[in-house]
Amino acid sequence: MLWSALGEWFERERRALPWRATRDPYAIWISEAMLQQTRVETALPYYERFLARFPDVRTLAAAEEDEVLAQWSGLGYYGRARALRAAARLVVGELGGRFPSTRAGWLALPGVGPYTAGAVLSIAFGLREPLVDGNVQRVFARLFAVEGAQGSKELAERCWELARALVPSTQDGLRPGDWNQALMELGARLCTAAAPRCEVCPLRSTCRARILGKVEEFPGPRARKAGQVVRLEILVASRGDELVLVQRAAGGRMAGLLEFPTRELVRGRTAARLWPARHLSGLAPAPGRALGELTHTITHHRIHARVRPGRCECALAPPLRSCPPEQLSGLALTGLARKVLARLLSLTGALR
Ligand code: ADE
Description:
Blueprint: H1 2-13, H2 25-35, H3 40-53, H4 57-62, H5 65-72, H6 79-95, H7 103-107, H8 114-123, H9 134-143, H10 153-166, H11 176-189, H12 208-211, E1 229-239, E2 242-247, E3 258-259, E4 262-266, E5 269-271, E6 283-285, E7 292-297, E8 302-312, E9 320-323, H13 335-348
Parallel strand pairs: 1-8
Antiparallel strand pairs: 1-2, 1-4, 2-3, 2-9, 4-5, 6-8, 7-8
Bound molecules: adenine (ADE).
Adenine binds at residues 32, 35, 181, 184-185, 188.
């Protein structure tokens, strides 16, 4: 079911990329090395140039390091380029120019980890080998509602277990390399971090996170470093004569306390997770000046929050509610919500 739904989608949607038109392990290895930490669109011209200059493993092994670095220049993480050349020299010098066809053989090459080994063995050799990269991890975290923070060992290990269990063999009707690439493609194009497009996802009917209505909550947020500054935007949204509040989820920090709708501002990305988007389609910041900036320190990090006015015209259901401003101070608010309230009081003098 999973295989056919994803396989059919990939068959229809796969991008015609040059490394998909070959089974040459050398070309596929180079592409996979480039695609780690680099987007497909960025890697494409580098790949074409690199393969034109170093068309096979012997050419790469014979090249000066400076020239390899020059061809890599702009892709970053130059250790990857040095490792490619070192591995090419090893393949030529010790393996007679033939690439290994086993996992252990690939893992013994410089710069090759479980991801690259899985990619080359499944895509070029057609072997039933799994892989997990950041995209696959996000897809699995959502598809199976896997607990664990991004970057945690727990999440990574669980995703590798799933990848091992799910990778098909060719007899299952889907080539292992196509399955692996389809998962990565799904993560890059539909199951994205910032704006998942569940409505067109081939796995929407089986996705646990979607069924739970919690797509944006998987994978769990990265654990913060102690002392890190967290930037929040807090909405003081009026609904008629009342203000909108959210009750924090059971089981988490400050469970059950009330706060103003809040979202985290992450560079390049607005994380909707704290401003529960699925409950708040009718809630929007109002034009006009911010009500101020607040700072707040909780156990391990500092918060810089911008308070903005907002409006809400939607019906409210738990965890949302509204309350007359003069009753707010009697409610179980978070410390930060109390600071927001104090700021409102100082601005208007009207709330008691
Ligand atoms: N990301 C890294 N390698 C990829 C591949 N072969 N297909 C799609 N996305 C990728």
